[in-house]
Give the backbone structure.
Amino acid sequence: MQEPLRGITVVALEQAVAAPLATRQLADLGARVIKIERPGVGDFARDYDRTVRGQSSYFVWLNRGKESLELDIKADRKLLVALIDEADVFVHNLAPGAVDRLGLDAPTLRAGRPGLIHCAISGYGPDGPYRSKKAYDLLVQCETGLVASTGTPDAPAKAGVSIADIATGMYAYSGILTALYDRRRTGRGASLHVAMIDALGEWMSQPAYFSGYGGEPPRRTGARHPSISPYGPCRTGDGTVFFGVQNEREWAVLCRDVLRQPGLVEDPRFATNDDRVANNDELTAIIERAFADLDAEQVSTLFDEAGIANARVRSPAELARHPQLLARQRWRPVDTPGGVVDALLPPVVSDAWEPVMGRVPARGEHNAAIRVEFGERSA
C-alpha cells in the first residue's frame, strides 16, 4: 500500500509544538519532511525534558519520520532557497515579523513558485493590535477564555496539555491537506495562515456563546460539566466513577434501572436538565448515597448494563496499558536516537494505507546527505 503523500516534499522551519504536530502528521502519511534546525542548538523543544530515554517527550512525540538539517538560514541562504524550490509545502512558525525580514513570506516565495503551498503559523495573526505580540500555549489559553472557564470556583486552571498548540497544529495540517487537494485540481498553490487565537477561539465558541448570550460568567465546576447534569465524578464505596447523562431518556433509565428510584424522574427539582444543573449538589448527594455500599467496579457494571456512559480515571502512564488500545494493537515501535519507544498510531484508521511511523531524528542527522543532494542546486 502506497502512502497517500509519497512524493510530497515539505520544508519546515519549525520549533516547539504547533508546526511540528502538523508536519509530523504529513510525515506519517508518507511526505518527506525536512526539518530545519538551528546549528548546535536545534529545536528548543529538544530540551524541554529528558524523560524518554534521555530525550524530550515533546520532541519524540512530534518529530518522527522527519529529516533533520542544521542550517544557518542567513549564511546558508542558497541551500535554503534550493530546498524551498524543490518543496511542495513550506511551513514556518517563526517569531512575528521574522519571516518578512528574511524574505520567506508567502508573496516573495510564491512569486516565482505559484504552485507552492506556504503555511504560516502565528499567535495572533498577521495584522491587528496583537500581531507582534509573542504567544505561548498558556497565554493563548488565557486570551481565549479557556483558563477562565477551567478549574474550580476558587481558582482558574489551564488545560493539562498544550491545547492551543494542538488545535493550531491540527488546523494547519487540515489546511495543508486541503491546499494539496485544491492544487491537484487547479494547479495553484496557496498562502495559508493559522493563528493560535483563531484555532483555540473556534474550540471555545460554545462557552463564548453560553456566556455572551446567556449573560453570565463561565461556570468553573472542576471535573463536573458546567451545563449538563448529572455529568461528572461520583463517589462509590471504594473510589470514584465518572459518568454522563445526555438526554431525558438516559435520565429516566438512570433513575429507574440504576438508582432504583423512578420517582426522581417526576421530582420538580430534577425535571429538566436546567433544573438538574441548578440542583446538582442535591442530585449528587442522592446518587452517591445509592452507591455508598457498592465498589467502583460494581457501579461501572451497573452503568454498562443500563447503557449509561461511564469511565474510570486513569493516569497518563496508564494510557500505554489501556486494555482497549492493547486489544486493538494501537502501539508501534519507533526508533529514536536514545532507543526504541512505543508510539500510538494516528487516529485515522484506513484500509488503503499504513502510517509510516518513521525514526525520530538526531539533531543534524541528515546534514551531510541533504547537502550532497541539494548542494549542486545551490551552487
In short: The two ends are 37 Å apart (CA to CA).
